Amino acid sequence: MAKRGSAETVEQFAAALALAAGDNLVSLLLRGSAARGDYDAKRSDLNVVIILTDASATALRPLADAVAGWVKADQPPPVIFTEAGWHASTDVFPIELEDMREAHRLLHGTDPFAKVATTREDLRRELEREARGKLIQLRAEYVAVAAHGKWLGALLLRSAKTFFVLFRALVRASGATPPQDPRALVAVAAELAGFDPTAFEWIVAKLAGEKRPDLAAYAPEGGRYLDAIERFVLYVDSMMR
């Protein structure tokens, strides 16, 4: 398979999967940063979604070589839905579905979003659950790495990408369209939730490839980031009440 992260890698996988799956393949999507326009080959993965008519063990067997080659190219395993399961997921995964709707590339098959609709109430419900759970996880990871500047910086960069997904959900729940640029997204989410957007300045600068020094042990950037996430989650809780 071609070099990791290249367009050729994606095209080769799409062709191999389509050939292996045949008529069982409904849709093959590229999602995430590669579809959103902020892909970084050093930090980002190529995330794909496969939608099949039949996802039984027997039906999955012909896909084994194509998927194994994809994983061997250091990419995450595809997310696999049945077509029926995809349509039944609107109330369970509204954040993920709407995030994909706004940033995806159809590699093969039919548009899976044509007849899929989510509700704002389901979006808010998942947002509350995910925001609270990710905050609890962030606290534990922060305690574990705060004394090591390099690890702290890695945590901020990694976790921020997850919270950017939740920020986009917050903006959608407010009735607006979220910006794709991370700095603009943080500004809009901060205005809605009332947290300090400068808590993300080091993060968005690093993600944009700007020169920034590595963090020191117990760097204030880490504390401000955690405080901002706390405020974000409090606001999400208040939305549900």
List the helices and strands and how they pair.
Blueprint: H1 7-21, E1 25-31, H2 33-36, E2 47-52, H3 57-60, H4 64-72, E3 79-82, H5 83-87, H6 94-102, E4 104-109, H7 120-145, H8 149-173, H9 182-193, H10 201-207, H11 220-240
Parallel strand pairs: 2-3
Antiparallel strand pairs: 1-2, 1-4
Helix pairs in contact: 1-4, 6-8, 7-8, 7-11, 8-9, 8-10, 8-11, 9-11
Say how many strands there are: 4
For the report, how would you describe the main beta sheet?
4 strands, mixed
What shape does the CA trace take?
A: globular
Residue-averaged pLDDT: 93
Tell me which CATH architecture of the largest domain applies here: Up-down Bundle
Strand percentage, roughly?
5-15%
Radius of gyration: 19 Å
How many domains is the backbone divided into?
A: 2
**Roughly how many Å apart are the termini?**
51 Å
Number of helices: 11
CATH fold assignment of the largest domain: Four Helix Bundle (Hemerythrin (Met), subunit A)
Order of helices and strands: HEHEHHEHHEHHHHH
What is the CATH domain class of the largest domain? Mainly Alpha
The percent range for helix content is: 55-70%
Q: Determine the structural class based on helices, strands and strand pairing.
A: alpha+beta
Brief write-up:
Helix content is 57%, strand content 10%. It has helices at 7-21, 33-36, 57-60, 64-72, 83-87, 94-102, 120-145, 149-173, 182-193, 201-207, 220-240, and strands at 25-31, 47-52, 79-82, 104-109.
